[in-house]
Amino acid sequence: MVDEIVANAVPSQIEAIASAMTKAHRSMAHKKDLVERIAIDEDCDVKLLNADGVDLRGFDLSAGEKQIFTQALISAVSSVSGRGFPMVVDTPLGRLDIEHRKGVLNHLVQREHQVILLSTNTEVVGEYLSEIAPHVQKKYLVHFERVGEIGQSTVKPGYFENTKGRA
């Protein structure tokens, strides 16, 4: 998917996307010295380069590292395109370790356009919710209920702090 998105970018914007991806990745990742820069070559191959020029994508990245890479790409394309579009992130912290969580949230709240987070009752709560609270405009709780053979979801104003962790 990453290669397809980059391949469809205007070739003159490839360097700008690589630079924006590097900046976004650095703001989210807690291992700031692991990735020196993100490079995109003329064939639109994306590389996560360390200080020695080794492409880290050739190694087995964790699910969290892959998520940060993908979010950096989306953020970069958005910023380079100059178009304001909302970003919807489902389970934004689900695959991330504690060190990455605040970095990702702080990066997302710095976006100029709307960000919608679909969180579980163990993700954007407590200290993480407090961290971004000044940037949160609305909070909703999606409640699922089985009605006979089908499921039904309802949306109400509120959030998990009103349910004592039940979802």
Automatic annotation (TrEMBL):
User: Looking at the record's lineage, which domain of life comes first?
Assistant: Bacteria
The family database entries (SUPFAM superfamilies) matched by this protein are listed as: P-loop containing nucleoside triphosphate hydrolases
| Designated name of the protein | DNA sulfur modification protein DndD
User: Source species, please?
Assistant: Paracoccus rhizosphaerae
Stored Gene3D superfamilies? P-loop containing nucleotide triphosphate hydrolases
